Amino acid sequence: MTTRAVLQGCARFPLRACRERWPIGVVIAAAVAATGCLGLAPVRPDAPPGRFRERVVVLVVDGTPGLPFERSYGTPTVTQSVRGSVPAQFHVRSAVAVTATFTKAAAEGELIVRLVVDGQEVARRQTSQPFGTVMLSRVLAR
Q1: Is residue 121 part of a domain?
Q2: What is the DSSP string of 26-55?
Q3: Which helix (H) or strand (E) holds 94?
Q4: Are residues 134 and 74 both part of a single domain?
């Protein structure tokens, strides 16, 4: 369809012409929305370099030995998704925060997840529910 035909179609049948070009409108609306969301994102705080020291957080997965699970863990900006079985340990480096979600891949058994920072357990969650999920998060920058 040529530009002239589209313009003539808009003049005679504005709804039809708009329906034919709706994918372009969706793309434009998404771009505008994304740009607007970026304006709401916080700007880097005025913190001197090195104010928040990077830490190694250990995620310890315990419970019923051999229990299969699926997981997603990491920092607010980078996560990893992997499958495994109990017992397991995962190390995450972050200066800001750590987040983790572990889901049992079986109905039976117990899943326990612990967050260890600087050698101290700072959070612990567990589930015995069939295919239960455990979610943990910890802000490190204070």
Answers
A1: yes
A2: HHHHHHHHHHHHHHHSPPPP---TTSS--E
A3: strand 88-94
A4: yes
Tens digit of each residue's pLDDT (9 = 90 or more) over 46-95: 445 556 788 899 999 999 999 999 988 888 888 889 899 999 999 999 88
Are 36 and 91 part of one and the same domain?
no
Of 94, 87, 78, 81, residue with least CA distance to 138: 94
pLDDT digits (tens, 9 = 90+) for 98-126: 999 999 999 999 999 999 998 999 999 99
**Would you state the pLDDT for residue 36?**
42
* pTM summary value: 0.63
* Helices and strands of the chain, counted as H and E runs: 3, 8
pLDDT at 142: 67
Domain co-membership, 19 together with 85: no
Tell me, what DSSP letter sits at residue 86?
A: S
DSSP 79: E
Residue span of the structural domain in which 129 resides: 55-139
Q: Are 56 and 91 in contact (CB under 8 A)?
A: yes
Separation CA 63–CA 127 (nearest Å) = 9
